[in-house]
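Ops channel
N.P.: pipeline sanity check, posting one input/output pair.
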């Protein structure tokens, strides 16, 4: 989560023109601009980020200060904290493949947002590019926004499942009408289904699906509550 937060914070800084990293480092071929009509974060004054200017300042906040309802931005933090390759190769490849496939078939989005499904296709395209065999390697939760501003989880009973089983439940919901085929989808808590050997800390077996995380930046992070 922390690695993902750094990534998003860097994107927010880039959206404001404060830094311009190479697109391949951040987006894996994904669009770096929101569809027309989409609200640009932050949407409220109390969501304005706090900007720090060094790794030391960022780690001070991370280790010793409260995090609730705060967004702390370290510009260029993905590079400064060595997070460039935090997303496993199998997921990066699926992102790039899905972006390439969508770019060849996505129409212009000049219509009102309610009739533009560009954003709704991104995660579905990613899941398709990942393929069933690789979906079986991960676990994750799928959510949909059939009603704008209201999220609902795609469930398959109370069964703990692989990502592929979640995708099957999504398709079943679309077929029976409980999930709109143009509803935006997102994935949360994406992790390996079974423990794998950590690519950096070779003595550790983990389910976390990031190859680099806060533990690899400083050992002090292991003492965080």
């Amino acid at each position: 989560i922390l690695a993902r937060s750094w990534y998003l914070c860097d994107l927010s800084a880039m959206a404001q023109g404060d830094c311009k990293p190479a697109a391949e480092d951040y987006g894996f071929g994904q669009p770096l601009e929101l569809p027309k009509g989409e609200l640009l974060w932050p949407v409220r004054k109390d969501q304005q980020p706090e900007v720090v200017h060094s790794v030391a300042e960022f780690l001070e906040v991370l280790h010793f200060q409260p995090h609730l309802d705060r967004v702390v931005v370290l510009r260029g933090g993905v590079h400064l904290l060595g997070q460039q390759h935090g997303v496993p190769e199998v997921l990066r490849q699926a992102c790039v493949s899905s972006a390439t496939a969508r770019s060849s078939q996505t129409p212009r989005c000049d219509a009102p947002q309610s009739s533009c499904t560009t954003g709704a296709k991104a995660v579905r395209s990613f899941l398709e590019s990942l393929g069933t065999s690789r979906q079986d390697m991960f676990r994750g939760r799928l959510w949909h926004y059939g009603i704008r501003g209201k999220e609902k989880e795609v469930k398959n009973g109370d069964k703990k499942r692989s990502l592929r089983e979640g995708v099957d439940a999504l398709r079943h919901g679309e077929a029976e009408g409980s999930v709109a085929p143009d509803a935006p989808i997102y994935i949360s808590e994406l992790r390996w289904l079974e423990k794998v050997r950590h690519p950096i800390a070779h003595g550790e077996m983990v389910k976390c699906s990031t190859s680099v995380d806060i533990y690899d930046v400083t050992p002090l992070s292991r003492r965080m509550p």
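N.P.: looks fine end to end. Residues 215 and 221 are 6 Å apart (CA to CA).
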